[in-house]
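Dataset card, provenance and construction

Sequences and ligand SMILES were collected as paired inputs. For each pair, a complete structure of the chain with the small molecule in place was predicted and serialized as structure tokens. The example below shows a pair involving nicotinamide-adenine-dinucleotide. Curators did not alter the output after generation; any descriptive sentences attached to a record were derived from the structure itself.
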Amino acid sequence: MNRIGIVGMGFMGQQHFAIYQGLDNVEVVAVCDKNPTKIAEAAPSIGGNIGEATELDLSAQARYVCFDDMLAKEELDCVDVCVPTHLHAELAVAALEAGCHVISEKPMARTLEDCDHMIAVAEATARMLFIAQCIRFWPEYEALADMLSSGELGRLATAKFTRQSPPPTWAEDGWLLDPGLSGGAMLDLHIHDVDFILSALGKPPAVLSQAANLFSEGNKVDHVVTSYLYDDFVCVAEGGWAMPGAFPFEMGFQVLGEKGVLDFSLAKQPMLTFYPSDGEPYSPEVAAGTGYERELAYFVECMENDQPPERVTAQSARESVAVVMAEQQSAQTGEVVELD
Ligand SMILES: NC(=O)c1ccc[n+]([C@@H]2O[C@H](COP(=O)([O-])OP(=O)(O)OC[C@H]3O[C@@H](n4cnc5c(N)ncnc54)[C@H](O)[C@@H]3O)[C@@H](O)[C@H]2O)c1
């Protein structure tokens, strides 16, 4: 049985907590949040952009307001880091140095220096470091990745990804809306598509981004459109959280190859449809569950089998942060930015 402590019991910490209850080989033995109301025995639920808000019963867990206390007093196999992004590195490193495996929410960290520090400490301590890039595990995106790798779409022509939402107002002290802490919509939300694009299509030679702000100060980070300048197909992603409050969260893609187009949108019914160049459209079978459930189940299995997580290496999660940084540079300068 893998003993887990979750730090940060906001939107994502609560989602993770609820998912672990349904998994084998894992037990959440402790939870920590600096805000005591979030770890009350019956903790109020928090809504976010996706997933159910659920009432939590934390009566069976040890509950801490101080992370160092949780690390010192509990015998944990793994710490699940669900705190604001600018704190990922500090808490992940402390957990690794205490001998725990770490699962950390995406984006890996607020800066590349922090990403590198996390990777170095994971290597030095020989502990697993898994970054929760959930879209790689999201069933419809897995279906797309499978079609791309099997050649079912044929030669690729265009790939278009979108992710848009109202501002994330649930965050503790409004940290998500402070680009200095979260990196804005580009690093927090749009990175999901960046990470998927890199994992499924490989790294493009360069990016060209345009971005806009509606409420953030300074660098434009609220809404971005990026062209990934591959040599042989067109790839674009649009992402942002500047939509009005009533706008429903949307994620989707349209990927067109010579054998057809795979179309996915949360707003459509059915959500996933393949329109072949020849023949009738149909909805491909997808795995059950959400990307959140599937990524946590995967990492628990990695711990159980003592196998480093190959589906998301820490280095690949760092690469996604690096590409977002290149996009920010492009958006500020108006120039194409080459990727090394
Ligand atoms: N995978 C996804 O789709 C997804 C969705 C939303 C958020 N996230 C990521 O999850 C992380 C958390 O985001 P959230 O939306 O849950 O934010 P949140 O504000 O709802 O939750 C963060 C929690 O951390 C607590 N906290 C802050 N500092 C702490 C400390 N030093 N010690 C203990 N607790 C502390 C806060 O009190 C708060 O309850 C972020 O990195 C975010 O990017 C991922």
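Derived descriptions for this record:
The chain has a mean pLDDT of 95.
The radius of gyration is 20 Å.
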